[in-house]
């Protein structure tokens, strides 16, 4: 297929050819950079695109090799699968984990499935691997907690690809301890919540919402149409999860570890098991139906994963989810025809999700000039990366007895919820509008980052100049870095600096005020 | 945009203009404020406000300590309200009704429409199946609060849904992060004149942006920044009252809620009881949950009374789910699509009970205006309940919940 065919444009990009139909303009580059990496383009990249709009394609393609792309993939899946949930109980620093702090344990166990998805996507493996691979990812904490094989050689990477060692069916994130710990079951739920996650998030088939009124004359729930509809959809799929434990109870683990793991409590000691084949027999005990997805037998999660991978809804739903995340719209608002076209891109690329990401990031319709997608709000996770990249500042804290946390990407002690993010438990949909508390958190971040950058000499580049011409030059550089605008009008910023300098007679203080304002610029907190 | 809902630009236009001009209908009395207390997780009303003494085998009361003469469940009648009262295990529930029954109504049998925590929560708080719809607190706050209060709706526990009304709303964080951010002393911060200059700069930048798509975003941000400025003006009061803990319980937050309403920080508050209601195992935990929640509710009513605000505040205590009538083999109960609510304060008919559940906890039809049984009607739906809350506050639910008849039976 020709490289200049629109539908294979991105496939071509991944394969190594360029397409003159790519969107152009610095604004488009900024949006693409924020989409793919969550950080601004460099001044050099901005200059390159300003000089040659056709340069955008190659630049954005290179973003796929940036570690920040992996961060974005993890952020996307964390939000949609609700896998970062630090406000609720996690495993504690006891027993074999006693050498770690709570913050690190919470972070590592939450990241386990996200690291797997990151590895699959960033290395160009088929996206279907996220529901079929036998691989798992582990760092020392995950390896210790869950018994995953791990190479602890000094030069070995922290996060390693490994496998579950307990014989659980291989099914990517469908086999993940952390996923099912977040999405717990119970003695009466019978894995229905897990089935609902698969249907709604991976296949975009949510349960029907509240339109059927329970019939009070019905004496058995099974005959009540309000109940039967959901159960008919969920129960066969839920049956495929038997063998997985309902939940690991952190308090039980603590008690067992503190008791020295006597044999009677061995099951509650590390390494903790989320899989026990003996539990498969509970399916019949619970009266659950045969495991099926749309009439096809899926006796375990491995079969379920293969069925999902082969299901046409998976590609379309993946496209919808990615668009939803990148364009900050509800999944149900994504146009079906567009989703189908993007699903074709994904499948035609051998399920290389990088092709899908590029297709979205370089879609001329995404560019601000197209007028289709309004200003997008910088997410808390993007703020953390963006601010660190530009100022060197990371907003962290170390609450007593908890450990170091990033205040932008957590909720127990941090401000993610206030910044419009989700806490993954009570709040599961982001807020894409400004709010007073988002502005308060942004201001706190900007002030601290500005102070840090000035005090460490990182910004403004060229030092704490005060002469108007030099100030204007420094501001132009800052505008390009923070807002991606090489041609912004600077008079307001110059006036701001001069007013602050007049009040304080302190160049450092004046630059802190000015830099704070630039970090809060409408073009800095949106893109 | 869903039929019947105002467009985002129209909302901004009407609310923004009213805010900018400080306009609000000069009513003879100030508008009623709203506190929504969410027992997130699914409470079991049979422990208190929807008693089922007839249950024996596997029923709701096997926890009693037969050796303790004070651990008894007795039905206490407060007018129409029937309370399962246990002064050993849940003293604060009985104490609350002893003191505030004259201001309280109970609604049993509200159909939540789902067994999913999340979906039921959306439906109960917004009156619709859509996550994108603002909840009753955001609607009430944005409609009634402008010109008087700073924030339309303040969320304390992460459960509120703002929809397109978000610029007028705010989240405080589960551990009082709002207070942490308002506190000063942690390194450099701009002076007040510097802060004013920064604001002027941001306004100028927004005004000079030629991109037409940024107009609505700029308006929204202006609204949010205006509210932030007013929040900062109240920082001393707020930081004193707002607890900063690992996770604020409802009781921890009560002084802050009272202070926030008194100081005009917000018109509506959405709080989370932050206790473990989802008792699929060990239903006995419901005792403490009820006791703790009603202790907080009682404290809140006392503080609001002292501030002269209880007559001007509607408090709605609800949960997105009820619980199944029989215990499972883990001594727990499971999700149930019928729940109950407690309403206190402004406009509430005291000692009133809308008995919307039958002997087996399934919903029964009631007349939405009188609360009388009506077998020809459906059980009280979540939409009617939400519409009823708005209606009680003087907010026309029609634009937000078109065609929905509001529940009025709890009104005085």
List keywords for this structure.
heterodimer; A: 527 residues; mainly alpha; two-stranded antiparallel ribbon; 6 strands; disordered N terminus; B: alpha/beta; two-stranded antiparallel sheet; 13 strands; 34% helix
Number of helices of chain A: 22
Class per helix and strand makeup of chain A: mainly alpha
The profile of the biggest β sheet of chain A is: 2 strands, antiparallel
Question: What's the mean pLDDT score of chain A?
Answer: 91
Distance between the termini of chain B: 36 Å
Q: Distance between the terminal alpha carbons of chain A, to the nearest Å?
A: 34 Å
Provide the succession of SSEs of chain A.
HHHHHHEHEHHHHHEEHHHHHEEHHHHH
H/E series of chain B: HEEEHEHHEEHHHHHEHEEEEEEH
**Could you tell me the radius of gyration of chain B in angstroms?**
22 Å
Q: What coarse outline of chain B follows from CA principal-axis ratios?
A: globular
How big a fraction of the residues of chain A is strand?
under 5%
Q: Can you count the beta strands of chain B?
A: 13
Number of helices of chain B: 11
Shape of chain A: globular
Unreliably modeled segments of chain A:
1-21
Strand sequence of the main sheet of chain A, in spatial order?
Answer: 1-2
Helix content of chain B: 25-40%
């Amino acid at each position: 297929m020709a490289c200049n065919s629109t539908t294979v444009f991105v496939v071509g990009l991944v394969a190594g050819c360029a397409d003159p139909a790519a969107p152009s303009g610095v604004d488009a580059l900024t949006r693409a950079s924020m989409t793919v990496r969550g950080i601004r383009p460099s001044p050099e990249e901005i200059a390159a695109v300003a000089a040659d709009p056709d340069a955008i394609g190659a630049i954005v393609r290179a973003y796929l090799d940036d570690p920040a792309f992996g961060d974005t993939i993890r952020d996307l899946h964390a939000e949609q699968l609700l896998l970062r949930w630090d406000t609720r109980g996690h495993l504690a620093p006891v027993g074999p984990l006693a050498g770690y702090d709570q913050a690190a344990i919470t972070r590592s166990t939450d990241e386990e499935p996200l690291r797997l998805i990151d590895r699959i996507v960033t290395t160009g493996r088929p996206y279907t691997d996220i529901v079929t691979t036998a691989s798992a990812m582990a760092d020392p904490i995950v390896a210790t907690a869950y018994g995953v094989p791990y190479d602890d050689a000094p030069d070995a990477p922290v996060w390693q690809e490994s496998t579950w060692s307990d014989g659980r069916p291989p099914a990517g994130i469908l086999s993940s301890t952390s996923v099912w710990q977040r999405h717990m079951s119970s003695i009466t739920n019978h894995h229905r919540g897990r089935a609902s996650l698969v249907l709604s998030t991976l296949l975009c088939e949510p349960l029907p919402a509240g339109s059927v009124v329970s019939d009070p004359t019905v004496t058995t729930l099974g005959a009540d149409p309000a109940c039967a509809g959901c159960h008919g959809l969920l129960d066969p799929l839920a049956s495929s999860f038997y063998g997985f434990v309902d939940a690991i109870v952190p308090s039980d683990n603590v008690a067992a570890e503190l008791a020295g793991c006597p044999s009677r409590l061995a099951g509650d000691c590390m390494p903790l098991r989320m899989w026990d084949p003996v539990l498969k027999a509970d399916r019949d005990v619970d009266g659950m139906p045969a495991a099926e997805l749309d009439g096809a037998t899926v006796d375990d999660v491995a079969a379920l994963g293969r069925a999902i991978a082969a299901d046409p809804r998976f590609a379309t739903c993946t496209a919808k989810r990615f668009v939803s995340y990148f364009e900050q719209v509800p999944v149900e608002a994504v146009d079906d025809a567009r989703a189908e076209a993007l699903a074709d891109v994904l499948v035609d690329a051998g399920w290389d999700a990088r092709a899908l990401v590029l297709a979205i990031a370089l879609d001329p319709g995404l560019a601000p000039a197209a007028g289709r997608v309004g200003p997008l709000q910088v997410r808390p996770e993007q703020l953390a990366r963006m601010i660190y990249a530009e100022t060197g500042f990371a907003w962290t804290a170390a609450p007593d007895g908890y450990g170091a946390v990033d205040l932008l990407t957590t909720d127990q002690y941090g401000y993610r919820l206030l910044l419009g993010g989700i806490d993954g438990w009570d709040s599961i949909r982001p807020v894409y509008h400004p709010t007073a508390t988002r502005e308060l958190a942004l201001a706190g971040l900007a002030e601290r980052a500005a102070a840090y950058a000035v005090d460490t000499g990182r910004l403004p580049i060229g030092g704490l100049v005060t002469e108007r011409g030099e100030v204007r030059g420094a501001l132009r550089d800052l505008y390009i870095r923070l807002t991606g605008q090489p041609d912004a009008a600077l008079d307001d910023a110059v006036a701001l600096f001069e007013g602050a300098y007049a009040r304080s007679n302190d160049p450092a203080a004046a630059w802190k005020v000015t830099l704070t304002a630039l970090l809060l610029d409408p073009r800095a907190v949106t893109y | 945009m869903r039929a019947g809902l105002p467009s985002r630009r129209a909302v901004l236009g009407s609310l923004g203009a009213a805010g900018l001009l400080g306009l609000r209908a000069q009513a003879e009395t100030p508008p009623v404020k709203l506190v929504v207390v969410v027992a997130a997780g699914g409470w079991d009303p049979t422990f208190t406000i929807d008693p089922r003494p007839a249950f024996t085998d596997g029923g709701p009361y096997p926890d009693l300590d037969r050796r303790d003469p004070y651990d008894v469940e007795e039905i206490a009648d407060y007018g129409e309200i029937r309370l399962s009262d246990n002064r050993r295990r849940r003293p604060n529930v009985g104490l609350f009704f002893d003191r505030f029954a004259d201001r309280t109504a109970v609604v049993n049998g509200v159909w939540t429409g789902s067994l999913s925590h999340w979906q039921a929560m959306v439906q109960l708080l917004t009156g619709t199946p859509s996550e994108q719809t603002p909840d009753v607190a955001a609607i009430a706050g944005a409609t009634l609060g402008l010109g008087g209060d700073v924030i339309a709706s303040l969320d304390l526990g992460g459960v509120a849904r703002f929809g397109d009304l978000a610029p007028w709303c705010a989240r405080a964080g589960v551990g009082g992060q709002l207070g942490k951010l308002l506190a000063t002393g942690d390194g450099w911060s701009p002076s007040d004149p510097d802060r004013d200059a920064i604001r002027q700069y941001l306004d100028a930048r927004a005004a000079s942006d030629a991109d037409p798509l940024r107009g609505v975003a700029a308006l929204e941000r202006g609204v949010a920044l205006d509210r932030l400025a007013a929040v900062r003006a109240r920082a001393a009061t707020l930081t004193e009252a707002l607890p900063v803990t690992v996770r604020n319980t409802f009781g921890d937050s009560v002084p802050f809620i009272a202070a926030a309403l008194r100081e005009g920080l917000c018109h509506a508050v959405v709080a989370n009881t932050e206790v473990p209601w989802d008792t699929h195992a060990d239903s006995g935990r419901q005792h403490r949950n009820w006791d703790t929640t009603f202790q907080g509710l009682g404290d809140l009513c006392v503080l609001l009374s002292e501030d002269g605000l209880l007559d001007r505040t509607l408090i709605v205590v609800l949960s997105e789910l009820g619980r199944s009538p029989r215990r499972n083999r883990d001594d727990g109960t499971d999700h149930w699509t019928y729940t109950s609510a407690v309403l206190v304060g402004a406009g509430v008919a005291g000692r009133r009970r809308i008995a919307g559940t039958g002997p087996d906890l399934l919903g029964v039809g009631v007349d939405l205006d009188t609360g009388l049984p009506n077998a020809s009607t459906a059980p009280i739906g979540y939409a009617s309940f939400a519409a009823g809350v708005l209606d009680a506050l003087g907010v026309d639910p029609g634009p937000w919940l078109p065609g929905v008849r509001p529940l009025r039976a709890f009104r005085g």
